[in-house]
Amino acid sequence: FSEPNIVDGVQRILSGTPLYGDREPPPYDTMQYAPLHYYTCALLCVVTGTHAEDVQAIYIASRTVSLLTNLLTLWLLWHLGRRLALPAWSRLLWITVLFTAMHEPYFSRPDGLYLLCCIGLFTTTIRALEEPVTERRMMLYAALWGTVAIFTKQSAVGPLGATGLALLLQRRWAATGWFVLFTGIASLAALGLLVLSNGWQNSYANIVLGNVNGFSMPWFLIVPPELFSGLAFWITPVALVLGVINVRTKGRPVDKYLLTGSIVTWGWAFITGMKNGSNVNYLTEHYILSIPIILLWVRDAGDHLRTAQLVLISGLVIVLMARCAS
């Protein structure tokens, strides 16, 4: 139901109207997402000669942007798996599970571009942790990925917070400082452009107040079972246990980052999942960080744990098949 909101926003940009207008007079338009996906779709429309009145072409442009960002997301995830030294079969399993978990929001809303930016944030941070000589440059890239993410969808507060906390817990003081500095500069620059083009009050009313949907006990009782049950429910506790094992036995910076990120993004999904209008895609970032915890343990386990490996791999395959069937 949010796709018409994207089309409406793109029409406003193409017609020369500010994206974020006054919500109070009719027709009470509210552009509830951060601006970058709207502007990306509008740019494609300009390149293809699409006008504001051509609604069908705008729908096609929006879905084209989503499809392209999804394909880039899978490519970047494959690259991240290679950096983690995961074997090809586990990388393929990882991206296949993610792709089958992508439902409507990833093909018609900002979620596709947002997820691409989150994985870019995770990838550059992991490289900084593994290669300290590239720390400052990678923190710049991570900050840019994170800034684009939060100006695509406000949910990026969770992954950004998880990254900052993970760096702090590992006492990577220089990396933390660079990350905060670069993110602050990039965010202030983007915020300045947003305010100049749309005004402070209208931007705040749409992006912030437009998402204050309230909290209700019926929703509180409905959402948690959807978020944390079903065939995928076992990934969270298993990743938590194996993440602790990886940290205690290997102690690698990447293990610590994945575990911290998995926990923080789970908590962020739970908190934001209490909002009316939330959905199961709130847990996607959590699963992106949790599945490699399992795959890294499988890779490092000895032959005497082969049965456990097969059980965990079979579980991921079952999740994959269930998603395909649904």
Describe the structure.
This protein has 326 residues and is mainly alpha-helical. It has helices at 3-14, 36-47, 55-83, 88-101, 105-108, 111-130, 135-150, 157-169, 173-198, 200-207, 217-227, 235-249, 253-272, 284-300, 306-325. It starts with a helix and ends with a helix.
Main sheet: strands, sense, barrel: none
The portion of residues assigned to helices is: over 70%
Number of strands: 0
Count every helix, treating DSSP H or I runs of 4 or more residues as helices: 15
- Rg from Cα: 20 Å
Order of helices and strands: HHHHHHHHHHHHHHH
Low-confidence stretches: none
State mean pLDDT (0 to 100 scale).
85
Global morphology: globular
* End-to-end C-alpha gap: 20 Å
Structural class: mainly alpha
What amount of the residues lies in strands?
under 5%
Which properties best describe this structure?
single chain; 326 residues; mainly alpha; 15 helices; 0% strand; globular
Entry summary:
This protein has about 325 residues and is an all-alpha fold. The protein is built from 15 helices and no strands.
Topology:
Layout: H1 3-14, H2 36-47, H3 55-83, H4 88-101, H5 105-108, H6 111-130, H7 135-150, H8 157-169, H9 173-198, H10 200-207, H11 217-227, H12 235-249, H13 253-272, H14 284-300, H15 306-325
